[in-house]
Amino acid sequence: MRVDVFESPLLHFLAVLGIDEDTHRLREGNDFSYMLAGIVYCCRVLGVEIILPKTFRRGETAEDDQRFLELRLKHLADGSLSPMAEMISLLAYSRHCAFNHANAGAIAWSNSDSTIAYKGQKIPLARFRKLVDTVVTEAENILWREVL
After folding, report:
1. Pair (70, 129) in one structural domain
2. Are 64 and 52 in contact (CB under 8 A)?
3. Distance CA 95, CA 34 (A)
């Protein structure tokens, strides 16, 4: 029996988190996987603390270990038909999407060689050359003043 995604408040929250506020569309795996990974990590840490609280870890017995492993398998593992299993499945899918995402470069040269585009903003090459020249001159001045 599969988990009804919207029956779990946590999975409902993840569904809402997957909506991009700006575009009112679902986020792409590349933009969602890091959020989901953080939530999965936090849920696992909280789950471990709930199943086996830190205060009882010093005096734990083999029975406690067995109880922990059973509850972990039931609630925190993939394939357990739990909200956590659904989150792990979503994480695997979003990571697959992110790894197969074609990342466009941040800088693109124009065909006329007179401008470059940085994240879509056009910059004349003359300004770019001046920027580089200014940075090199400033670095040389710092070298002469403070180092030599």
Report:
1. no
2. yes
3. 9
- The token pair that represents 64 in the structure block: 């406690």
User: Range of 56's domain?
Assistant: 5-99
Q: 72-97: per-residue pLDDT in tens?
A: 887 777 777 778 888 888 888 888 87
Q: Are residues 113 and 82 in the same domain?
A: no
51, 68 contact by CB (below 8 A): yes
Whether 118 and 50 map to the same domain: the answer is: no
The pTM (predicted TM-score) of the whole model is: 0.56
- Cα separation, 64 vs 56, in Å, equals 9
Same domain as 70, residue 94 = yes
pLDDT of 4 > 70? The answer is no
User: Which of 72, 35, 36, 32 shows the shortest CA–CA distance to 51?
Assistant: 72
**127 shares a domain with 93:** no
The domain tally of the chain equals 2
Distance of CA 55 to the CA centre of its chain: 32
CB atoms under 10 Å from CB of 78, counted, come to: 13
Sequence-separated (6 or more) residues with CB below 8 Å from residue 122: 110, 115, 116
